[in-house]
Amino acid sequence: MFKKRHNIKEIEEGKYLSPKFDENGLIPVITTDFKTGDILMHAYMNSEALKKTIETKEAHYWSRSRKKIWRKGQVSGFIQKVIEIRIDDDQDSVWLSIDIGNGASCHVGYRSCFYRSIPLGKINDEEEVKMEFKDKIKIFDPKKVYKDEPNPTKL
Amino acid sequence: MFKKRHNIKEIEEGKYLSPKFDENGLIPVITTDFKTGDILMHAYMNSEALKKTIETKEAHYWSRSRKKIWRKGQVSGFIQKVIEIRIDDDQDSVWLSIDIGNGASCHVGYRSCFYRSIPLGKINDEEEVKMEFKDKIKIFDPKKVYKDEPNPTKL
Description:
The structure is a homodimer. By secondary structure, chain A is of the alpha+beta class. Chain A has helices spanning 8-13, 47-56, 142-146; strands at 27-33, 39-45, 60-63, 68-71, 81-87, 94-99, 116-118, 132-133. Chain A has a 4-stranded mixed sheet. A two-stranded antiparallel sheet of chain A has the order 3-4. In chain A, strands 7-8 form a two-stranded antiparallel sheet. In chain A, a hairpin with a 4-residue loop joins strand 3 and strand 4. The first copy, chain A, is globular. Chains A and B meet through helix 1, strand 1, strand 2, helix 2 and strand 5 of A and helix 1, strand 1, strand 2, helix 2 and strand 5 of B. Strand 5 of chain A pairs antiparallel with strand 7 (116-118) of chain B, so a sheet runs across the interface.
């Protein structure tokens, strides 16, 4: 189903899907809100998750913490309806444009996972870098929604 | 300069930058056009590239093919001026919003690396998946711009 990668010109300029999965069998995925264009999350797919996403038009990822296919929204109810999928020049990353209605994609409760901004300019090596919260409104309460599910964030 | 990761609550809800670099010392980066919101590219930074990007306000990446810090636009002239940097909930991916004026970010010549769209729906396992070109206009001719530089796309 996915074309073998045997020619760089074909990978870059050809019409056939030949995704490159890394040494762990994964490809990085950027997920954006099709209405606002905002980046919602960054995740990974394996070959099966990519196939399921294309076929069901619902985002499926590979959960690195749980080591299994993850139908996004299975627990929270915030299913991601796929509007468009694109792939990049060397076919080693994927862009999903999705619809989550008024829902959220971040397990912490925010609409987007990217709710903090890093200040620009000279860094003092002795000091920590203090960020700014750009989004302060949680769409849901993770404790109520996820209950006893383990937190995917790892040290 | 980057806070040590020793508490999940602090990583997710705290103000301090404590990025997680993977087993190769890299963090994935999504780069968007600050004007249109379009995704331009997906790349990686090591700790030094992230620091240089924050301090110089010009995007620096880690080139996995060339194994060195890569000041984007050094060869092509399409320098990426950083407008904003965000980090996600578990601090293992970065979003750069940048200004490249009327330039391009894709080494193949297109404005964005994501110029092909994957059709949705049932896949026939026996057939290859044929994509659609969403962007057909090259901003520059890679042969003229990169000359003898090696192509970063790998099989």
